[in-house]
Rhodanese domain-containing protein
Amino acid sequence: MFNDEFTLQVVEAFPDKKSKVLVACGEGLRSLMAISKLHREGYKSLGWLTGGFNRATEGDFPEIEGPEELRFATIGGASYYFLKLLVLLPNFGKESR
């Protein structure tokens, strides 16, 4: 779902448009759209996590991670069930020996 107040919320959180802002999502597509909006808003020091959290590997964010690794940030909801399907489908219909 699109957040119509996204840029307003970022401006409120980071009023200095010289602030360094890193934007990330699961696959990298939504964050790319967000970076575009922020650039039009006047932010120039922007970072984008190419491929999103799903491409991250263990130890990519050691300075900022809490007890949960950021690479697992998007697991849950529909993404979690899609992942389970990807694991189960290759075995569907195989005969057990």
Summary: The CA atoms of residues 79 and 85 lie 10 Å apart.
